């Protein structure tokens, strides 16, 4: 006959005596210390351990160090963490260099100096950018290799300037020529002097009181500063006239006599100071009134002058 197994349920009863009462707590399960681990908490009403809250090493020294660091961390205000080296609490002004950051996925890191330069660029008017070195605003007068830029373009002006590189331009105050250097050498972009040329064959045979050789349709005044004339015979006379565009009015420019004997040619020159009416208005004609008593085979006329760019 088998002996019965007797299971004895040990009942641990604790009595807590208080004034006027008796309290009894029943603990059906008491886990061992090594099951709980360091710092484990036990629910006083159920004696159940919440093990998920802890990741505790079995190394006592490691745990002690970690607990000490945690205590320090919890008691600090963010201003004395050695790995930060400066305060990062709200209201602090920590400084971080560009090397402290990654490129942010391809985004450039802006340094304090760059930010300052950019702010200056946005607020300034172009007068003090150090990398330019001069005022390049619409009212500034910067100079680039002897070329001054303002509201009016200013280029170098001198007597017989030397332009010898492609793209260079300058104004020759001797010959009144705007010079430029191109692939073929120096060229004239513009000239102050203009000439009006006319050759009339057998003028005595032309049945007209006035022979017109030029009409001014430039909106500018033409100033004559020299008159030259040639002929194959001596003492040829004619008068240059300024005539309105509809022919209703006229005035003499200068009476000319070709009398100086050259080699197989006769000629004359009248300078600007000797010309009676040297200015030819816009919409005016220049005509020649010929003395039909003279019978040259030809007359050659050259009027040298310039256009005044001031509007009428």
Write out key terms for the chains shown:
mainly beta, 3 domains, four-stranded mixed β-sheet, Jelly Rolls, six-stranded antiparallel β-sheet, 312 residues
Estimated share of beta-strand residues: 25-35%
The name CATH uses for the topology of the largest domain is Jelly Rolls
Architecture per CATH nomenclature, i.e. the level-2 architecture of the largest domain: Sandwich
Classify the helix fraction into a percent range.
10-25%
Question: In angstroms, what separates the terminal alpha carbons?
Answer: 148 Å
Which stretches are low in confidence, meaning pLDDT under 50 for 5 or more residues running?
6-44
Give helix and strand order, one letter per element, not per position: EEHHHEEEEEEEEEEEEEEEE
Number of domains as seen in the coordinates: 3
* Shape assignment: rod-shaped
Mean pLDDT: 76
Oligomer: single chain
Structural class: mainly beta
Radius of gyration: 55 Å
Major sheet size, sense and barrel closure: 6 strands, antiparallel
Q: How many runs of DSSP E, i.e. beta strands? A: 18
Report the top-level CATH class of the largest domain. Mainly Beta
Count every helix, treating DSSP H or I runs of 4 or more residues as helices. Answer: 3
List the helices and strands and how they pair.
Blueprint: E1 13-18, E2 21-26, H1 33-36, H2 60-75, H3 112-123, E3 143-144, E4 147-148, E5 157-158, E6 169-172, E7 177-182, E8 185-191, E9 194-201, E10 211-215, E11 221-231, E12 236-244, E13 250-258, E14 260-261, E15 266-271, E16 279-280, E17 284-290, E18 298-308
Parallel strand pairs: 5-6
Antiparallel strand pairs: 1-2, 3-4, 6-7, 7-8, 9-18, 10-17, 11-15, 11-16, 11-18, 12-13, 12-17, 14-15
């Amino acid at each position: 006959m088998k002996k019965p197994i007797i299971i004895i349920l040990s009942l641990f009863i604790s009595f807590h005596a208080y004034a006027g009462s008796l309290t009894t707590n029943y603990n059906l399960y008491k886990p061992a210390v090594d099951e709980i681990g360091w710092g484990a908490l036990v629910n006083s009403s159920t004696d159940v351990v919440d093990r998920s809250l802890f990741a505790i090493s079995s190394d006592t020294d490691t745990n002690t160090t970690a607990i000490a660091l945690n205590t320090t961390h919890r008691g600090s205000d963010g201003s004395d963490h050695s790995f930060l080296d400066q305060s990062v609490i709200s209201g602090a002004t920590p400084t971080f260099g560009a090397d402290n950051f990654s490129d942010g996925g391809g985004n450039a890191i802006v340094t304090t100096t760059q930010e300052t330069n950019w702010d200056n660029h946005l607020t300034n008017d172009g007068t003090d950018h150090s990398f330019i070195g001069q005022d390049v605003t619409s009212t500034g007068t910067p100079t680039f290799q002897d070329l001054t830029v303002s509201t009016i373009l200013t280029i170098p002006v001198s007597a017989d300037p030397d332009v010898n590189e492609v793209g260079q331009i300058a104004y020759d105050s001797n010959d009144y020529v705007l010079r430029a250097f191109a692939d073929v050498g120096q060229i004239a972009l513009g000239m102050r002097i203009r000439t009006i040329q006319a050759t009339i064959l057998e003028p005595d045979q032309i049945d007209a009181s006035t022979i017109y050789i030029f009409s001014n349709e430039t909106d500018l005044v033409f100033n004559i500063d020299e008159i030259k004339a040639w002929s194959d015979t001596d003492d040829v006379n004619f008068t240059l006239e300024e005539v309105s565009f509809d022919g209703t009015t006229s005035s003499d420019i200068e009476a000319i006599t070709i009398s100086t004997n050259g080699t197989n040619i006769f000629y004359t020159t009248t300078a600007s100071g000797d010309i009676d009416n040297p200015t030819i208005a816009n919409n005016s004609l220049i005509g020649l009134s010929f003395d039909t008593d003279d019978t040259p085979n030809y007359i050659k006329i050259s009027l040298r002058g310039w256009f005044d760019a001031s509007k009428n």
